[in-house]
Amino acid sequence: FGGPGPSRMFHFGGHPGQEEMDVDDEGYGHFGGGHMGGGRPQRKRQDSAVVRELPVSLEDIYKGATKKLKITRRVLNNDGRSTRTEDKILTIDIKPGWKAGTKITFPKEGDQTPNNIPADVVFVIKDKPHSVFTREGSDIRYKAKISLKDALCGTTLQIPTIDGRKIPLRLREVVKPHTAKRIQGEGLPIPKQPGKRGDLIIDFDVVFPNQISSTAKEILSDCLPAS
């Protein structure tokens, strides 16, 4: 897992454990170290932060989740000079609505050596691609495919939600290209506004037929306006 010394292994584990962690959803911080003073012994410097992405599903962002990750690192023995390999479980409590880019910092959980201050271990939340929805902040978008007939004549669609429900959406007006409809309060939780959620935005993909009969062409020509 980066930094000096042997490589680290990070993966999801199944063992309990709770560690102190700092959460920052506003941007990257600065990780510094010590400095040398003239004529004085060199002070220990902290290793650069070890940063890794943590993919999280939209379902976990919606309801919250707990992730346990096992790290393998070097730690100092009691003599203060030799080291040994140690496994440790880091626990991350994913809060509902956390944004991509939110950082969770475990201070000084990196490799230990006689001459360094261990690095901070930082996980950065990343949205996992979803098969149905895409995320825009606290809103989620859904693409609904409808036939040309339904776009012109109307229909009722069953719109899925992030928590597995279906919401009926009645289309009474002609659905034009780039039309979108919004269902309020069916998106993701808004972290700084408890109890509030973003919206579910429906984009329409109108599927045109590959061909139509001559009779249908005549009927459409008589019924549809020229422009």
TrEMBL record:
The keyword Nuclease does not apply. The keyword Chaperone applies. GO terms for biological process: protein folding. Residues 52-209 form the Chaperone DnaJ C-terminal domain. One of its GO terms (molecular function) is protein-folding chaperone binding. Keywords: Chaperone. GO terms for cellular component: cytosol. SUPFAM superfamilies: HSP40/DnaJ peptide-binding domain. CDD domains: DnaJ_C. Signal peptide: none annotated. This is Chaperone DnaJ C-terminal domain-containing protein. It comes from Magallana gigas (Pacific oyster).
